[in-house]
Amino acid sequence: MRNKKESFLVNRLKSVGFAFKGAVLLLKTEASIKIQFTLGVIVTIAGFYYNISTTEWLIQLLAIALVMCAEGVNTAIEAIADFIHPEHHEKIGLIKDIAAGAVFIAAIFTSIIGLIIYIPKIF
């Protein structure tokens, strides 16, 4: 019984390690996630500067996470699609466009959240 618990813990730690490796790889190799990360850092600095409320922090952090997660999933979908069908294909293009559209929707709503939080503080 004890070995199973240790095995489970070891497996969970390995999973966290793989996830961390994936996040670092994403940040190192993907231009779009670098932009999203930079924007996240900028609005985080703005949050400290404008002393946003706890609720605003929670919403801002969720919005940043949403866009970055969507960007990561989009990157994974594009990589899988390119691996499965390296040549241009109409259906693969459609799949990639839909994944990019999800990132776009997340980014638009995140921008609206940012405007709602910061416009009253700036003006």
From TrEMBL:
Q: Which residues bind substrate?
A: E71
Question: Chief location of this protein?
Answer: membrane
Question: What GO cellular component term, any one, is given?
Answer: plasma membrane
Q: Which residues form the active site?
A: E71 (proton acceptor)
Q: Which domain of life is it from?
A: Bacteria
> Cellular location of this protein?
Cell membrane
Name the Gene Ontology biological process terms: phospholipid biosynthetic process
Q: Name one GO molecular function term.
A: ATP binding
Cofactor(s) listed in the protein's UniProt record: Mg(2+)
Keywords, comma-separated and alphabetical: ATP-binding, Cell membrane, Kinase, Lipid biosynthesis, Lipid metabolism, Magnesium, Membrane, Metal-binding, Nucleotide-binding, Phospholipid biosynthesis, Phospholipid metabolism, Transferase, Transmembrane, Transmembrane helix
Q: What's the protein's topology in the membrane? A: Multi-pass membrane protein
Q: Which family does it belong to?
A: Belongs to the bacterial diacylglycerol kinase family.
Tell me the protein's name: Diacylglycerol kinase
Q: Which organism was this protein described from?
A: Algibacter lectus
Q: What is the lineage of its organism?
A: Bacteria, Pseudomonadati, Bacteroidota, Flavobacteriia, Flavobacteriales
